[in-house]
Write a structure and sequence with these properties.
disordered N terminus, alpha/beta, 10 helices, Metallo-beta-lactamase, Chain A, single chain, 27% helix, seven-stranded mixed beta sheet
């Protein structure tokens, strides 16, 4: 009897395992397309020792911060941010989630700084000549694109279809949802948002740009408890990174500040953190730097292109 039971278990494991495997392989996930601050790496005009290798070796170059949501169940894909490196990132997403299967259901924008929306130009009349690509934006961002050239031409020629977002309003797409939330930042032309991305099993925060955590009325630690991943602003590693420049005028939370803030969290919560949106001066761009090793030893993660985070 025991032998028959064992054989039956082996039989079920053998024939059912492809089903379970298929289910896991078809879960929605986040796919990281770029990790650098708006201007990419190396940055224009930077001929310092940290930039020169990337000018001489194109394999070392890295694009501005962008992520994708890929849903194999519904054959949908979404892009967060339209960066100046949009052509390469669009191709990378095509390789990951081919256009022949996956429909681009939307581009979600956080704000009107160059690394986050200017890639829309590649959808336009002089480039891709796209047709009605859904672009999701908050009210000020929505009006900015509609009423200012050359972006207004994208609307006029129906290259993009603007969709209005509201703070904390959920956009539902089958088993996934996306909701924006306002964050403090330099808002010259638009408000700034982060996004909560919800999958069938897990959820993520995407906050590539924010001022100091203390400037936000929301407690980032409490928010961190409610998700499985937090891709957060890591523009600068520490004060003094820009030489003599007054960094109080660019009030991003330093990585060192975030690490100190999260220091007492349990390891499981530290593991949720993925530092992203790194300036060309940030030593975290070098995986062999002592700073990178310090971050990883502390239990945090550093975002890299091609990373998949299952939802």
């Amino acid at each position: 009897m025991q032998v028959k039971r064992t054989i039956r278990i082996i039989f079920l494991m053998f024939f059912l395992s492809p089903i379970f495997s298929w289910s896991a392989e078809n879960d929605p996930y986040i796919y990281i397309l770029g990790v650098v601050q708006d201007a990419g790496f190396p940055q224009t005009g930077c001929y310092e020792v940290h930039c020169l290798p990337a000018w001489e070796n194109t394999d070392l170059r890295r694009g501005a911060t962008s992520i994708a949501l890929v849903d194999p169940r519904s054959n949908r894909k979404f892009i967060f941010e339209a960066t100046p490196h949009f052509p390469q990132q669009f191709y990378s997403l095509h390789i990951e989630a081919p256009d022949s299967r996956y429909n681009l259901e939307g581009i979600f924008l956080t704000h009107a700084h160059i690394g986050h929306y200017t890639g829309l130009m590649f959808l336009g009349h002089e480039a891709m000549g796209a047709a009605s690509v859904p672009v999701y934006a908050m009210p000020r961002m929505h009006e900015y694109l509609r009423n200012n050239g050359p972006w207004s031409q994208l609307v006029k020629f129906n290259n993009i279809d603007l969709n209005l977002l509201q703070n904390e309003q959920i956009q539902k797409f089958d088993e996934t949802s996306i909701s924006p939330f306002l964050v403090p930042h330099r808002d010259e032309y638009s408000e700034t948002v982060g996004y909560r991305i919800q999958g069938p099993a897990k959820s993520a925060l995407f906050i590539p740009d924010i001022d100091k955590w203390s400037d936000w009325e929301i407690n980032i630690i409490e928010l961190l408890h409610t998700v499985d991943y937090a891709l957060i602003d890591a523009t600068f590693f520490a004060d003094g990174e820009l030489g003599m420049r007054d960094m109080s005028q660019i009030p991003h939370p330093f990585v060192t500040e975030s690490m100190e803030l999260f220091d007492n969290l349990p390891v499981v919560d530290k593991n949720k953190v993925w530092f992203i949106h790194m300036n060309h001066t940030n030593p975290l761009l070098d995986p062999n730097s002592e700073e990178s090793k310090q971050v990883l030893r502390a239990g945090f993660n550093i975002a890299t292109e091609g990373t998949r985070l299952p939802l």
